[in-house]
Amino acid sequence: MTEQSGALMRAEIAQQPDVLAALLDAENEARAIAARLRARPARFVLLAARGTSDHAALYAKYLIEITLGLPAGLASPSTLTAYDSRPDLRDVLLIAVSQSGGSPDLVESAVRARECGAHVLAVTNAPDSALASVGWHLDVHAGEERAVAATKSYTAEVLALWLLVTAWAGGDSARARAVPAVVRAHLDRQEEIATLAERFRFTDRLVLTGRGYAYPTAREAALKLMETTYLAAHAFSGADLMHGPIAMVSKSHPVLAVVPDGVGGRAMAPVLASLREAGVDLTVVGGPGSRRPGEPGYSLDGPDEDLSPVADIVPLQLLALEMALARGLDPDAPRGLNKVTRTW
Amino acid sequence: MTEQSGALMRAEIAQQPDVLAALLDAENEARAIAARLRARPARFVLLAARGTSDHAALYAKYLIEITLGLPAGLASPSTLTAYDSRPDLRDVLLIAVSQSGGSPDLVESAVRARECGAHVLAVTNAPDSALASVGWHLDVHAGEERAVAATKSYTAEVLALWLLVTAWAGGDSARARAVPAVVRAHLDRQEEIATLAERFRFTDRLVLTGRGYAYPTAREAALKLMETTYLAAHAFSGADLMHGPIAMVSKSHPVLAVVPDGVGGRAMAPVLASLREAGVDLTVVGGPGSRRPGEPGYSLDGPDEDLSPVADIVPLQLLALEMALARGLDPDAPRGLNKVTRTW
């Protein structure tokens, strides 16, 4: 570890308010794609992605099902590539999400999906990438991302997908204008994050949980922690946690629940009650009312629930960064990782 | 821990050859449902499940995409229930998989899906359950399951789904007749399992990985380990492992790869090579040729890749049982779990 440890990741986390504001200024691009989607209605949406972008895709699945009433599913790229299946995708939209647009299996599955009749939309941070050239392309405009642990490209993907789906549904995007300020407010609360990081200083595992829109946030936070601190971080939806993995948690193995205000947060109430009843060490990152007095945690304050994944991940990105530094690790140099992962 | 610790789980693991043979004898039931599915073709399949059954559903997703060429996705029950979305499901088949047929959120999401136009098929071990009454029903005939950690109901669900999809595709089911004997052969190799359990005696975490049809097996094995040994067991598809979580593994944190012969196993070759190159402690549960000489592991021998999830989970169920007992835990009494999990 050096004085510069984590400098790249910290800088890119700090760029997010500006990145998101610039993306909002470019929302006409999302509107233009949305107009094409409305002109050629899909019956079903498949989402294909890996790693961090897979959590943006999972967010989009919730948003599409809830906002558009379209059934949506996460694709298993290997069925189109390794298994060479030829599904009938004539009324399917495949949305491929990738920071680099460069992972060969993702490019190949997008090409295959197009051959099988799907419309393909790539959502990337790389307009010149192979993936961007397969079909339609939506640029997330995050600027060059150099840290191995993706941060600004994730929030940009999430907001770009929100802008796209909102325009597709014919909705008003004005609400999103509040997001950069909410993110900036998180960046100003470094001391609270450092206190949380101190709490988790010596744990070797952490379970994260959330429901609905907060579930992708829990998964992305777990991935950031795995990448930067090598912690055994698990993420479960609140419902799945009760179906088995709850046996794994105890007073010595903490749980961090992501509970923004809204429907998903309300659906977490029985899960939180069960965890408290079992005496589990619980930390709540959540909206007003989700934390008990004296319980450790971090307060979230907006934006609206459907937009909350753009902002709520930010304190958790900072948590991963601070926990890595506290453990003497350099989050800019995780073991075994390169910026563009090439999987086949 | 008492002399009886794990007796229920062990007994139900041992019943699997008979359970699977009985299910094969009842395959006309799957054929009858398949005839109805062929008469009312779906454009898309949604699968809804929780916990262990979610892994059977994930298996079915691969099988449906590869065998039938139909796009398929795992449903997020909360979008239909908590978020009250009303997707247009008029040409969608919803397959809900559940041992008990009793989880309220699953029943409610099946009812909602039917209201939104979907055909609903419940695959359960409980023909009198609420879920079984929503639409069509396929009984997995596993008999009463008393152990909290589901074993025989899982393999029965997987085989029932294989019989259903094979009949739906107009295929021949004769190949499945070999499965009970393969499972019986695993049950006769307790000593090898005990040796593997000894290897993992002191680890506090384990990463499991597999691709394609083996990925649901890796996920189900991780869940069994979490439920019975409280180990921090993670499962990643081979591709996703390379996109981030690989930073978490090292010489002191072992990886168990499930690599049956076939397409998925071949697609794992670059992942195994990367893990070996990084000096990771690697155990391979796999077909001939997947293990290096002297490398710890367990050899799998058939059945065909599309049927392998029925059999390949059995040594891993036994591994979870033996590891729990070696740690002085009673796998029949996991912390915080009941047989029927009620989530809303």
Tell me the fraction of residues in β-strands of chain A, as a range: 5-15%
Please give the oligomerization state of what you see: homodimer
Straight-line distance between termini of chain A: 33 Å
Number of helices of chain A: 14
Greatest contact pair?
A: A-B, 72 and 72 residues
Characterize the overall form of chain A.
Answer: globular
In this structure, how is the largest beta sheet of chain A organized?
5 strands, parallel
**Low confidence ranges of chain A:** none
Strand order of the largest sheet of chain A: 2-1-3-4-5
Q: What portion of residues of chain A is helical?
A: 40-55%
Number of strands of chain A: 10
Mean pLDDT of chain A: 93
Radius of gyration of chain A: 19 Å
Structural class of chain A: alpha/beta
Strands, helices and their partners?
Two copies of one chain form a homodimer.
Chain A (H helix, E strand, L loop, with lengths): L6 H8 L1 H10 L1 H13 L4 E5 L3 H17 L3 E3 L2 H4 L11 E7 L5 H12 L3 E6 L11 E4 L12 H17 L10 H9 L2 H10 L5 E6 L3 H16 L2 E6 H5 L12 E5 L3 H5 L1 H9 L4 E5 L10 E3 L8 H19 L18
Helix pairs in contact in A: 2-7, 2-8, 3-7, 4-7, 4-10, 7-14, 8-14, 9-14, 10-14
Structure description:
2 copies of one chain form a homodimer. Chain A is α/β, with parallel strands linked by helices and 344 residues long. Helix content of chain A is 45%, strand content 15%. Chain A has 14 helices and 10 strands. A 5-stranded parallel β-sheet of chain A has the order 2-1-3-4-5, sandwiched between helices. The first copy, chain A, has a 5-stranded parallel β-sheet with strand order 7-6-8-9-10, sandwiched between helices. In chain A, α6 (104-115) links the parallel β3 (92-98) and β4 (119-124). The longest helix of chain A is centred in the C-terminal third of the chain and has 19 residues, at 308-326. The two termini of chain A are 33 Å apart. The model of chain A has no long low-confidence stretch (mean pLDDT 93). Chains A and B meet through α4, β2, α5, α10 and β7 of A and α4, β2, α5, α10 and β7 of B.
